[in-house]
Amino acid sequence: MQFIHSKALTLGMELELQIVSNTTGELSPSSLAFWEACKHLDHAERYSLEATLSTIELNTSVHEDADTLLAEALALTATLCDAARPMGLLLRGGGTQVTQFWNERVMAPTPRAEELAGRFGFLPKRFSTYGMHVHIGAEQPADALRMGNVLQALVPLFIACSAASPFLQMEDTGFCASRPLEPLLYPHAGAMPRFKDWAGFEQACEEIFSTRLASTLKDIYWDVRPKPEFGTIEVRVFDTPLSVHKAAALAAFTRGCAALALAGTLRLPDQPQPLTAERVSRFLACRDGLDAELFDPFAQAWRPARGWLSELAAAIAQAPVCAADLRQVQALVQHCQHHQDATLMRDALAEALQQDQGVRDKQSQLASYSRGLGERLFATLAG
Description:
Blueprint: E1 11-21, H1 31-38, E2 47-49, E3 55-59, H2 66-84, E4 89-92, H3 111-120, H4 123-126, E5 131-137, H5 141-153, H6 155-162, E6 167-168, E7 171-172, E8 189-190, H7 198-209, E9 221-222, E10 224-227, E11 232-239, H8 244-263, H9 277-288, E12 293-296, E13 301-304, H10 305-318, H11 323-338, H12 341-354, H13 362-375
Parallel strand pairs: 8-9
Antiparallel strand pairs: 1-3, 1-4, 1-5, 2-3, 5-11, 6-7, 10-11, 12-13
Helix pairs in contact: 2-8, 5-8, 6-9, 8-10, 8-11, 10-11, 12-13
């Protein structure tokens, strides 16, 4: 499996955005028509369709500076929003949509979607949720695995920081992040195994491919996985945040943690991990978000999520990849001390449902809720 060498610690991100009807506030299976409007725009290659028709994805180029990453992501998002408006559509963040019912999702008429439906039945429709992926460049495959092992150990904290999927099927799930639970239904999902070398990674992939439930790396839904064709390690576990500014800050934080791993500052202990601690920690991050007590595998101790975030940010500040990263990480820490997207979504829905109660119908209330979240796409972390 050939690894395309990249410049160390370059970064990029993918954002899956919800396509929502401005009138009803419900997911709109409009991505094909939307794509027709977008494919002639500048930088159309930065947009792509997903397996179901209520999603549009944007992909940034490769960056060495978190500020330029943010600027490009904002520009790409603004272009999409401008294209959506005349069609009666709006785009918004969040890991799930409150009106998402899997049986109402429509698969895209693409070979990839047909392959997924044939292989996994209803699961791709059920997994019609919205995530953010962060790619970090690696010069050597061994570097990708070194960073990947550390980033996988940080997955519960990444889930807690990005938690933005409290609702599903018109109900509060009781979780701050229900979306990261969905891929666990797939046979090749969950935590990336800890690999000592590239040969071990290739062997694991061959064993998975032999099952015929996966034919390429894109069929392996690990929380973290190498992308040899890009020369990156990819963190896939984030909910799509409500704002692009938060997405860029999370990307900067991810790169800062990767830099600590590459420098050997953040290193996993040699002794075996407790059998269930990291799995339970992932569950608690999904349920409680930033209010969770999480297992820190580096210190071999349970600790509050916000305290762990602050400690890692302080370590990143000692040797930041760039000044922009440091600003972004510090803004993320300040934001997370007082806010999390799941709580903002719960508060926004409660407020929308209370407005003019008895006068407005549920549909108009949901539309108001979705419009409010759509407006947050361009909100700063201080806002």
